[in-house]
Write a structure and sequence with these properties.
Layout: E1 10-17, E2 23-30, H1 38-57, H2 59-80, H3 88-95
Antiparallel strand pairs: 1-2
């Protein structure tokens, strides 16, 4: 990607995926150096370098985190679809006062 195609003061990552699943990942930036102090520039440079290292050597970690995120999302979606329907025996026990209420509104401290 040409630097002039990247918006000013932007870090960009492109990922090209081939038909065999191989991924070519590139990091580019168009940082205007004279707009930032030395500390900020060091931070930006370290961020870009760290991103490159993580993508280069930590792909397994990224994949694991992505898979875990998807599993959590799927579990959350499944839980929102669960509806509780009490068994008739439980309803009878509640009606006959064989079940102790744990409501915090009625507790004495």
């Amino acid at each position: 990607m040409n630097k002039k195609d990247i918006p000013e003061n932007t870090v960009i990552m492109t990922t090209k995926i081939s038909s065999d699943g191989h991924m070519d990942i590139a990091i580019g930036h168009n940082i205007t150096l004279d707009e930032f102090d030395d500390e900020t520039l060091e931070f930006i440079e370290s961020f870009i370098d760290g991103l490159n290292v993580q993508l280069d050597s930590g792909m397994d970690t990224l994949l694991t985190m992505g898979r875990m995120s998807r599993m959590i999302r799927d579990l959350t979606e499944e839980q929102s679809e669960v509806e509780f329907e009490p068994d008739e025996e439980l309803l009878d026990a509640i009606h006959e006062a064989k079940v102790i209420s744990l409501s915090t509104k009625k507790r004495l401290n």
